[in-house]
Amino acid sequence: MKPTIYDIAREAGVSATTVSKVINNKGRISEKTRKKIMQIMEELHYQPNVLASAMKGKSTYTIALLIPDMANPIYAQYLKYIEEYGQELGFNIVMCSTGSDPDKEAKHIALLRQKRVDGFIIASIFKNETVLKQLIQEKVPIALMAFERSELPVASVTGDDYLGGYLATEHLLSLGHRRIGIITEEETISGKERIKGYEKALLNAGIEVEPSLIVAINDPTIEGAEKHARKLLDREQRPTAIFGYNDVLAIGAMQAAKERGIIIPDELSIIGFDNTVMCKIVEPRLSSVAMPIQELGRKAMELLVRQIEGNDNTKQRISLLPELVIRQSTAILNEK
Prior knowledge:
Layout: H1 5-12, H2 16-24, H3 31-43, H4 50-56, E1 62-67, H5 74-88, E2 92-97, H6 102-114, E3 119-123, H7 129-137, E4 142-145, E5 155-159, H8 161-174, E6 180-185, H9 189-204, E7 214-217, H10 222-233, E8 241-244, H11 247-259, E9 269-273, E10 287-290, H12 293-308, E11 317-320, E12 323-325
Parallel strand pairs: 1-2, 1-3, 3-4, 4-5, 5-11, 6-7, 6-8, 8-9, 9-10
Antiparallel strand pairs: 10-12
Helix pairs in contact: 1-2, 1-3, 5-12, 8-9, 10-11
């Protein structure tokens, strides 16, 4: 296997960032360190971006990040860490929002390929199967982030959505809740996994899953969640707790509850997913399941850069563990 930037860093006893700065002739590096790195590169016969050079004549040191929804703050967090680590390695990041529209996905990919980006990080969802399979077939460097396609030969880094759904539901169950609604987004792999975790937690607690408490929506906005949460809350036997597929949907449920004068968390507990900045600015502050966003971004960049350099054809699939962040929107069930 050809040596990578990480192999050079390990041999030299420095960071991958330092090696990248030497390769790109950027930053302040001591002459002693520079010579040491150059010597190791020569000994290992390292040639940066061989694949990119062969395919495109010259690397642009640009990576495209495709996201489905600019309005969801989780994607700003993705960009923050991908951009930070990308710059350390000498890459610029360009971000495009697809709106989960297959036509927009195809147009963005075509335009970005014309501009000779070195590779793509695709976050959360990608609906255009034809384009995705074409990229894979043509061996374009790709890393999926926050979702995976196990049936396709493509690298991915995800949080464990199943475990996240289980943790959120188990937390509500531990507070005495038995009628737990869930508002999720239609046709997403992560949504399906979080529902599986939700159902498993209920079954482990000896509670039968009630399909009518599972609401899948095609408008994953605060307004869309608010509309569907009203239907849950207007039931004769309304849920005492609601699990939002993400923080946006959870906050929509909070809005619907406040409209009806339902006190959170005294009369209704609500938990979200992603642990975005929104959790700390709503009232009461939102409990949520946190994914290791910084590590997700770093691993996605590592997977992609290895492909760009032509040194990784293994199509690794990495899964990271979530954790529960408890705030004021969840509380022990107050049975009157």
